[in-house]
Amino acid sequence: MQTLLSYLRKNPTAMLSKILRWLKKLKVWRIVSLASSIVGLLCYALSSSFKYLLGNWSWWKMLLYIVFSFIICLAVLFTPARSSSISFRLESHLAFLVLIITSVCSFLFDNMVKGKPDAYSLISWAAFATMSLGLSNLTQFGFQIDLLYFFCGGLTVQLMKMKLWLVTVGGCFSYSLLQLRHYPSHTDRENLRFQDQNQVIIQVNDSGIVSSSSHEEANAVDSTLGTSLEDEDLRFQDHLLTQSNSPSQDGSVDDGLIIEQQLINCIKELEKENEMLVPMVSSHVDKYLKAVFDSKEVADDPDINLVMNSLPSEIMRRLKETVKLMMNVSFMEECNDIYSKWRREFLDECLRALGLQFQTPNNEGVENWLKTCKAAAKILFPNERSICDYFFSEFSVIADVSFQKVCKELTTGLLSFADTTITTESHLPNLLSNIVPKMLESLDELIGEISTMMLFPKFLCVPDLEDFRKKLYILCSLRNIIYTNDVEAPVTDGGLHLITKRAMNYILDNSDNIGNSSFWVVIGRMIELLGSELEVKSKDYYTDPALGYIFMINNLSYIEQKTRDLKLDDDWFRQNTAKVEQKCNLYLRSSWSKMVEFLKVETNESAEADVAGELMKEKLHLFNLHFEETCTMQSTWTVCDKQLRERIVKFIEEFLLPEYGKFSDRFHVVFGNQAYEYIKFGFLDIQNCLSHLFLLDEEMNVEYKKNV
After folding, report:
1. What is the DSSP letter of 210?
2. Which end of the chain is more exposed for a tag (fewer CB within 10 A), N or C?
3. Model-level pTM?
4. What is the arithmetic mean of pLDDT over 651-671?
5. Phi, psi dihedral angles at 426 (to 5 degrees)
6. 569-596 burial string, b = 16+ CB within 10 Å, else e?
7. Taking Cα atoms as reference points, which of 403, 408, 405, 412 lies closest to residue 383?
8. CATH code for residues 592-707
């Protein structure tokens, strides 16, 4: 960047030249012309001049004006681009038509429009002048410049009617448009290819005098001296090379366009070598990949100067000098685009020749992806860097930018395939144990190799490479956390597992690295995998199923709270909530269903009263025994979230108390006042015992809140 800034300070007109060249592009002028015509037609319809000429609006006037405006806009929008082969007959007829129209408009304006013009009239004439300027840069019919003169003159006259000194405003506006009109357009570079009859050939004689001649004169010289058109072209290139030590400092666009054409010509000459070079590079890459992937032998170091050494040295020298000249006339962007397009096409040809297509996410596609990464890191990119360093040896920043452009398309394709593969792979264990580690290893190598080639780290080829590598690393690290075996479970209280804390904290700490990518789909699946692993561990750790369910309730609830701010879809949260509810129901059944069964006494009406009474006493005794035992044991268990603990206790009360109430009423009917001798727990006693379940230690509560 410092090199670029220093260059711009030495060439103060560079930025202005770039802006003017951008303004002269065909697409820009077409948009400007269309917008100007629309503004001009609208403002003229609202102006006082229109009212003086045609009177008040009526429906047929409005319809005709809309049709006329639509035709004008279509003509501007679809006007043919510049061409050097315009029919003289068509041009003359159009010029005559414009002459008649402008003459009639001048006559009507002078004789019918009275008073000072309003703002709408001034804006419309300025807009029509801008439209004419755009048309003059889009086509070569010849009449556009006449329209430009007409509207600029009309605008100036109207300004003078308002205030005489406003002639300076009209003059400045007209002068600006005319200067922009005569500034060389972006399409001039295309015209150079077609102006065979007027092509200028520059020659340098022994005395150093530069002479020029037309194409016809050059042919006459060819017939006399026996030289060919190619020899003349070489003389022209040699003349350009003589200017390399004293480049023009005025940012001349004409010189830049000519030099740019020479750059294109040199590249076309080098492209002819691809028929020989592409098979050579492909063979070298194929041999290296077979040694790396298919054999156990150590592969030889690849040749990182293969392409550079195989290209014709003389053409390479001329191309390098042409690049230098383009830099000196502020054609850096154009040079970059032409160069990077040339090299990208070469890389594409090599990959096609090698058969390294990886469009479909499958095993073969992944294998080709890995091979492409290896080929790019070890052979293709190093070769491109050596070529880039040769051409841009005096412009280190430009060298990095050019190399980045060359590599960008291939690396973007690699990332797109990898992202699709990872987010669509249905078999998660295969993804985590096979695909992700291999892709991560390949990306590490690719990024490392590219980093060593870059002089300026901020130009690291495609920053998404590093971002994607971080995502793969997150998946690998998360897998290692989930499958670790060095963490003991909370066997006694069924609380949070350390693996759950580590996994969820790791996801939250790296959520910024995941960003808004599709990787959240994989993260959601990995959290489900964590739940499955916890399910297996709960069965291994706990012999009491109820404690295992409490363990799962704790961990699943913790996962749900930690993921509230993550970018997981709503379906994931609904499924996780459903899992928690399922575990709560299973806990109730395993722990309290048996006690509810104790409260159900089924006797025949013919049975004796004392038999029914004894049965109810036995049932009540068993209930009291199991209830007290269960409450004592589960008071040592842990539910880490206070609100969740209250919900579970409420579920138990709703499940147990109604049945206990029915049994108690029936017991009183059978035993009367003697019932109090056998009923150990009243309603308040049961509620009090249940309130002491899952007593949450205060320190544990503080730690839980910290984690959440």
Report:
1. E
2. N
3. 0.60
4. 87
5. -80, -30
6. eeebeeebeebbeebbebbbeebbeebb
7. 403
8. 1.20.1280.170
**Maximum distance among all alpha carbons in the chain?**
142
pLDDT over 90, % of the chain:
16
Q: What confidence score (pLDDT) does residue 3 get?
A: 45
Q: Across the chain, what does the average pLDDT equal?
A: 76
| Backbone φ and ψ of 78, nearest 5° | -110, 20
Residue-wise pLDDT for 497-533, tens only, equals: 989 999 999 999 998 888 888 888 899 899 999 999 9
- The structure tokens listed for 263 are 């750059």
pLDDT for the residue 291: 87
Tokens of 214: 């037309």
The tokens describing 222, both together, are 């060819």
Tokens linked to 56: 């008040």
Structure tokens at 293: 């992937």
Angle between helix 381-391 and 436-453 (nearest 10): 20
What span, in angstroms and rounded, lies between the C-alpha atoms of 122 and 49? 10
DSSP-based three-state secondary structure for 213: strand
Q: Residue 101: which of 78, 134, 72, 70 has the closest Cα?
A: 72
Angle between helices 119-138 and 167-182 (to 10 degrees): 20
The Cα 150–Cα 103 span in angstroms is 10
Tens digit of pLDDT for each residue in 310-334? 888 888 888 888 888 888 887 888 8
Alpha helices in 329-462 (DSSP H): 332-354, 363-375, 381-391, 396-424, 428-430, 436-453
Question: For 589-630, what is each residue's pLDDT tens digit?
Answer: 888 988 888 888 765 554 556 677 788 888 888 888 999 999
Q: Is the pLDDT of residue 372 over 50?
A: yes
Residue ranges, CATH 1.20.1310, the chain: 264-446
What is the token pair recorded at 248? 């023009």
CA distances from 643 to 22, 653, 655 (A): 65, 15, 18
Considering the domain delimited by 264-446, tell me its CATH architecture: Up-down Bundle (1.20)
Residue in 503, 513, 630 with CA at minimum distance from that of residue 556: 503
pLDDT in tens, 243-267: 433 344 444 456 667 888 888 888 8
Q: How high is the pLDDT of residue 479?
A: 92
Distances (CA, A) of 463 to 272, 460, 619: 34, 6, 73
Which part of the chain is CATH 1.20.1280.170? 592-707
